[in-house]
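Continuing from the previous page...

OK, I double-checked the sequence for Flavodoxin-like fold domain-containing protein against my notes and this is the correct one:
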Amino acid sequence: MHPKKILILDGHPAESSLSRTFADTYAQAARAKGHDVKIVHLSELEFDFDFGQGNYHDFKPLEPVLEQVLQDFEWSDHLVLTTPMWWGGLPAKLKGLIDRMFIPGRTFDTRNPNKLGFPAPMLDGRTARVIITSDTPGWFMRLVYRRALIHQMRGQVLGFVGFKPTRFTWFSGASYPKQDSVEKWIARVTRLGAAAA
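Thanks. Re-ran it with the corrected sequence; updated C-alpha cells here:
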C-alpha cells in the first residue's frame, strides 16, 4: 500500500473524550503501517470561532493556529474527523472552525464555478472518514432523521470543498457505553487506521 498523508482532527472540544481516544487509536494504527500522520486536537486550539459579520469579501484574517490547520488540510491525502453529534449537529467550536477556515480562494473557488454553477472545490483529490459518536441509535438516525448530519457533512461541507468519497462510522450509546462496546469500537477504529480507510 502506498503511504498516505493523513490528517486526523479530533473535533471534540473537551480534552478527554471518546473522540480523542478514537483519534489517537487511528493515528497509532496508521503510523504502524507506515503512513505519515498529523493529529490536531480541537481542545488545544485557541481561536475566535464566531464568523461574525464577515462575508466572502471581508472575512476575519485567520489566526496562526487556523492557518496551520488549513495548511494541514491542504497537505493531506486523507482526512479523519472524530466528533460527537450534539443536538443533531457538530459541536459549536468545530462548526466555528469550519466556518472560519473553509474560505474562498483556499477551499473553494467562487470565480470559476463548475458545470452546475456551484463554486469549484479546491481540496479535491482527497478522501475522508468521519467517526461520529452519539446517543441516537443508528436505526432512529436512518428512519426518523434521515441521516441529516451525514448528508450535511458529505454534501454540503467536506464534499463541497473536494473530499470524495467521505465515509462514515457511527457509534451510538456513547454517553454511558459499556466497556465491551468501547473495546469493540476501538478495535474497529484500529482496523480503519491500519487500512488508512
